[in-house]
From TrEMBL, chains A, B:
Family named by the database record: Belongs to the glycosyl hydrolase 31 family.
Naturally occurring in which organism (per UniProt): Vibrio algarum
NCBIfam families in UniProt: PRK10426.1 (NF007746)
EC number(s) stated in the UniProt entry for this protein: 3.2.1.20
PANTHER family given in the database record: SULFOQUINOVOSIDASE
Membrane-spanning segments: none
Residue ranges constituting the Glycosyl hydrolase family 31 C-terminal domain according to the UniProt record: 573-654
Protein name, as recorded: Alpha-glucosidase
Keyword Hydrolase in annotation: yes
Length: 668, 668
């Protein structure tokens, strides 16, 4: 770190990157006062801010105090905020902030930028990968249905359910970005934030409180950078071994149906690693579709004999997975118990607070109360792990209402974005305490800073069963890449998508294309969708079953390759799905490729995400790439390959040490 | 005016209204710095502002200097802006502003409010009449197609043409509001402004420059208030006598068709005051529909013998009206002449600037150049008035691009909102210089401060040929009422609406309901719409002709009543269409009635604006009201009357001095 303070200009550099350029004429730090309004409807937020003051902090003084450089910014002759600069033990730049006037609740910090710079990250971003040219509100919410105001589905979702969303809506926002200049920058805050990458000369980071600190570090390569990042936020454990044995089939409807479907799949040659039955604790019917009975215990009526069958299945090599989320259904046993013990968030006056989840209401387990966490961990351990579940979807986490009251006394506006982390931690600890970290798989869609060390894997949320770019198959790819750069190296998605509304029904072709992509991700898992009857399913016809069978065999064939990548992720934070620039940093084109990825070091995957497309245009960075199906070698640039159903555009690197394994894919 | 400056709080009152409450703790004046971005597509603007500074001016000093009280507001120890308070000769409160630092280009001023206060005006507002609870961006633009983000038509218009608009979009914004506390408040600026009425304790007036002054006055009654307002902004002249002789038929297609249609209408009993042929100077076909050839001279091919027929028609009692706007079609004679003389707006480097009007391009006549104004007045006098036109639509005025260069050196951002005024003034002066103010009718949709004294009548712009509340028949009523309160007392609309797009086609019922409303406005004028073939027209069938005939007879019957109202408007600014509270100020319900109006003093009109509605629910302020068709008397409150086609819900006041005339309506 170097601080230069000449001619009234303050310039901070770190590892040769200019981070902060500030002067009285061009201030880079602003404080202000705002009044936010948060309007939530079923996880969709309409947020407005009335900024009454935004003050440039032109004047400053610099002071050396022990191991920190203290810069005091003044406003109107009064000290307004202190920035305490230091290098951490790991040589990261840390700028801590201390508010000197409690009235300020808005903060803007400009990180120096260059016009051609590209940035990535901000959690899991589904529409943009390179974020330059846009601003990104960072607030955990439903991701939106359609996610594009020009799409008819988005308009329908907006007008019917306030649910259309936009390019920035995400279950997992994180106030951290990665620059193509090989540095990362993190703002430690869980308040509403907005990172604005529209300006040529700076990135403006806004948040609705005074952040604790800004953390920044640079490296000489992208692999070193993700290792550094995950050194900060934590790393996911390795995937349980059984996950790469085949597909996890999303099934609903009870014990008999589940066993039948598993048998039929196996008979058709499908490699089955598990059955994921989200309705294991019973169902509710709503106009949205089939919903679950959120009381987190085995439902004997719908799943008779599951207590014994679950163990038989496991012996046969098929794991059984369930479902849970951090809410408890009003007037059901867990709700009543939690309410009685005072483990639920309340209204400000201490009275009952339930959240609308769409024709039913739930209590919010108050994870700021350590006793409530212990209790919920107990629920997970007793009702789920001890029962025999080997995994679950750890759904939701984005719905903390901003007007509820929490045990730790912190405003729910500040806790909202932290909730996914708290929810992940409860699950992680329950598993850890059960000694099952290496064997249980749980997956979340919600996320935030610190989720990395607690959530074992992400899934991409609720895509439309549709081809649309912003909310269909394609959107899962930037989601995997952006969250991967944040340290979430294990990512996957519902094969075939989830949201079956507004006329969208899953076609056979979409299911097959999605399955082809999933075979080249660390987890294969299907989902029936919210209206199963409207969707093409894995067992709708023999051709689909045969296609899936082949894709699961390819996936299983890649087991050692995927396990090695998962290990690398757990040890060094190297994501399993990687942007092309991770290993080809001199390739300028690679920085704009958002619908292709490297799967491990040596496979390049370009999923077909357009309906009816049978020839795929692919960008290959300079290297020797062998087209998996034709065996033809390419050396880089934009090329075209045939990509009929069953032959997704996948290439392996000729120089791979796994070339034998990878060259066998075509023969499967 | 009273200025109290006690205990560091500054309170300004005028005629017992508290206008301004300011203290260091609760400042009511803010200055700032912003960078606006204006993106125009065919008159639809996408405007964003990046406010980098918003500074509360907490400290102030008060000084008496001659006839003004000077309040200097300081920021950071430096004087930032002066407010010079005085009473004008007419005893209005005037607060002039003088910037003391040129860097400030954003201004926020809080007018003290009470929680239950209601406000009106802001130019011509089509969705809301009482503006409280919303903010109103004030920028002249296309008004939008659909104007409601929840409507499918709006979505289609947005995605296809960026043209959907929203509740605040208007051709005629004006930074002036009227309070139910019987005061008006005007901010003298033509910059982009936004009046925010969402706060309980103040109205926040924002503009994107330092305004010249704020002007405010209060009266004891609403009639006195509109007289005061029009004392500031000017008053419209009286309607030409011939206008109330019948309907002005919107006809296109040439001399023969026009004469035929006039004859047929007259034969069916329609009282015809004029024929309005917007294509008198020729047409262009575009995908939008039939468009006009913007070269502003008689087109002999389309209108053969018009030079003689126009006089014959006049002798037969039918005036001929044309069309003009402030743009000249690229490469046509007027364009070439203007370009050669340097009368067109240019790019910043002085090179050619043409504006996209939808598949054709035009030059913008530079009305900041007095010579250009004289030239355009000459065009109007020679090509239109001397040719024999007795009126025209003075279309457009909202498209001044913000990045063009103008003769007077003022930024086009500042000139944009002034352009409708400049355009009106050119037309008004041309007519005045021709000595025809009392005989020529011209009507505009665009407007702004000062239009009142120059534009002889407004029409409500381009409604959808549809029943939708925000952009159909209903929307014309708040438009008339709000612009009327600003001093534009003569307002009317296209009978049947105009915009025929996105599947909207005008039905017979809509045409008839609109004609019924028009009979109770100061001008009856029909329009074929942009796609005449898709619309029901006045002569589509005999029943429609007969219905229109009756409505024109009623209108003509009301001639003396309407003329008296028009005279009152020209003399005292009393609008012909008035909100109920104008004469019933103690009736609290009256302040929320936006789809009914008083037509003159003694008629109450509640147009049917819903499809299929045959019974109309009407609110009557306390008085004796006689239902025109049944003769039944009502004394006030919410009532219901039959309102089949041909019997719009209209009531006259029993105490009217015109009771004889009004009681005869039913017999027509």
């Amino acid at each position: 770190m170097d601080i230069s303070n000449n001619e009234s200009a303050l310039i901070i550099t770190h590892k040769n990157r200019t981070i902060f350029k500030h002067s009285a004429q061009n201030p880079s730090l602003f404080l202000g006062v705002g009044e936010a309004n948060y309007d939530m409807y079923r996880g969709n937020f309409d947020i407005t801010d009335y900024v009454t003051e935004r003050l440039p902090l032109r004047q400053y003084t610099v002071e050396e105090t022990g191991d920190k450089t203290v810069i005091t910014f003044n406003f109107d002759g009064q000290p307004a905020i202190k920035m305490l600069l230091s290098e951490t033990a790991e040589s990261r730049l840390k700028a801590e902030f201390e508010a000197l006037d409690p009235k300020y609740n808005r903060f803007w910090f400009r990180v120096a930028a260059t016009e051609d710079e590209k940035v990535y990250g901000c959690g899991e971003q589904l529409t943009y990968f390179n974020l330059r040219g846009k601003n990104f509100p960072l607030w955990s919410s439903e991701p939106g249905v359609g996610r594009n105001k020009d799409s008819y589905v988005t308009w329908l979702a907006d007008t019917k359910d306030k649910a259309g969303g936009d390019y920035y809506n995400t279950n997992y926002p994180q106030p951290t970005f990665v620059s193509d200049k090989k540095y990362f920058c993190h703002l430690e805050t869980t308040a509403y934030a907005d990172f604005d990458f529209t300006n040529d000369e700076f990135h403006e980071l806004q948040c609705w409180n005074i952040p604790e600190y800004l953390l920044l570090d640079a490296e000489e390569s992208f692999p070193s950078l993700v290792e550094n990042i995950t050194g900060v936020f934590g790393r996911q454990p390795e995937l349980p071994d059984w996950v790469t044995n085949g597909v996890i089939l999303g099934i609903q409807g009870g014990t008999e149906i589940t066993l039948e479907k598993i048998e039929a799949a196996k008979a058709a040659g499908v490699e089955v690693a598990g059955a994921w039955c989200q309705d294991w604790q019973g169902i509710k019917m709503t106009s949205f579709g089939k919903r679950l009975q959120w009381d987190w215990q085995w439902n004997k009526e719908l799943y008779p004999e599951l207590d014994t069958k679950i163990h038989q299945l496991k012996e046969e090599g098929v794991r059984f997975l369930g479902y849970i989320n951090p809410y408890v259904l009003e007037d059901f046993p867990l709700y009543n118990e939690a309410a009685e013990k005072g483990y639920l968030a309340t209204k400000q006056d201490g009275s009952k607070y339930v959240v609308d989840f769409g024709e039913f209401y739930c209590g919010v387990v108050d994870f700021t109360n350590p006793d409530a966490c212990e209790w919920y961990k107990g629920v997970i351990k007793t009702n789920m792990i001890d029962f025999g579940l080997d995994g679950w979807m750890g759904d939701f986490g984005e719905y903390l209402p901003t007007d509820c009251s929490l045990s730790n006394g912190v405003s729910a506006e500040i806790e909202h974005n932290k909730w996914p982390y708290r929810w992940a931690k409860v699950q992680h600890e329950a598993i850890e305490e059960a000694g099952k970290t290496d064997d249980i798989l749980f997956f979340m869609r919600a996320g935030g800073t610190g989720i990395q060390g607690n959530c074992h894997t992400l899934w991409g949320g609720d895509q439309l069963v549709d081809w649309c770019i912003d909310d269909g198959l394609a959107s899962v790819i930037p989601a995997a890449l952006s969250s991967g750069l944040m340290g979430n190296g294990i990512h996957h998605s519902d094969i075939g998508g989830y949201t079956t509304l507004h006329g969208c029904k899953r076609s056979k072709e979409l299911f097959q294309r999605w399955a082809e992509m999933a075979a080249f991700t660390p987890i294969m898992r299907s989902h029936e969708g919210n209206r199963p009857g409207d969707n093409h399913q894995f067992d709708t016809d023999a051709e689909t079953l045969a296609h899936l069978a082949r894709m699961t065999k390819i996936f299983k064939h890649l087991k050692p390759y995927i396990k090695a990548a998962s290990k690398e992720n757990s040890e060094r934070g190297m994501p399993v799905q990687r942007p092309l620039f991770m290993h080809y940093e001199n390739d300028t084109e690679a920085y704009e490729i958002k619908f292709q990825y490297l799967f491990g070091r040596d496979l390049l995957v370009a999923p077909v995400y357009n309906q009816g497309e049978e020839v795929k245009k692919v960008y290959l960075p300079e290297d020797e790439w062998v087209h998996v199906w034709s065996g033809k070698t390419f050396t880089g640039g934009w090329i075209e390959v045939d990509a009929p159903i069953g032959q997704p555009a996948v290439f392996y690197r000729k120089a791979s040490k796994d070339v034998e394994l990878l060259s066998q894919i075509a023969a499967i």
